[in-house]
Amino acid sequence: MRIAIVTDSTAYLNEQEYKEENIHFVPLSCIFGKKVYKEEIDMTTDEFFEKVREAEQLPTSSQPTVGDFTALYESLQDDYDAIISIHLSSRISGTFQNAFSVAESIQGISVHPVDSGLAGAGLAFQVKEAARMAKLGKSVNDIIERMEELKSETEIYFVVDDLTNLIKGGRLSKTAGGVATLLKIKPVLTMRAGEIIPFDKIRTKKKAVRKMESVFEESVKNSHFPIQATVVHAYCEEEARQFMVSLKEKYPTVRFNFSFLGPVVGVHTGEGAIGMSWTKDYSRM
Q1: Among 64, 75, 135, which residue's Cα sits nearest to residue 111?
Q2: Domain that holds residue 186
Q3: Which of 67, 96, 118, 181 has the largest count of CB atoms under 10 Å?
Q4: What are phi and psi of 109, to 5 degrees?
Q5: What is the pTM of this model?
Q6: What pLDDT, on the 0 to 100 scale, is given for residue 90?
């Protein structure tokens, strides 16, 4: 069976990964005032963060439309027998719901939507593993079962450097945000049950990143299987790359990747955020 793998732009894969792994995607959009920009198509991540700096209000985001999904699914009908469509957490966005709606009504190909329960690098782990399994000729059921396993096995953490977005978005009061900024407190966020939630509050970014690494270190020590990890950043690439270099030296058994946080996730974390996600590496088992 020829299985197509579809995701959305919040997997934040690069062009080479989409091409080499034969992965298809639909973009989410960010909205500044009345202007709508498709993520990574109409606006790059760098352009997004520059624009946020100047904006009085945070942009909002919107999921791909039913029409977007229909057009993509129909374009795959001639070359594939089935589609597995893997998307960011339904607790963050309505993307999965729209994929599900189209899957129920489309004719000519079977579509299997998957709620990853994750976003960013966590979503990317599922998408790339699905593509790997599809190339190996695995069944739809086998691939979906693996996605569920990865959902429960994946950890995601972000260190927030700039509290501006949390304040603008109403997740942190101006008073609390002012005190936190004064004390150099950096929130560490994680994902649980499909939602981005606070994990810890640490003074200074350096210590907060160290805290995130300590959680990762514990996972590596206690793991009985190979681990893959991805370091992500929100418009602070050089700092994140230096962090990844140090991780590679300390944890030589881990396979590391590098990615970024685009507009839809970056609007939560703000500029300067550094994150990590890790999970079981089935490709080495």
Answers
A1: 75
A2: 155-280
A3: 118
A4: -160, 145
A5: 0.94
A6: 96
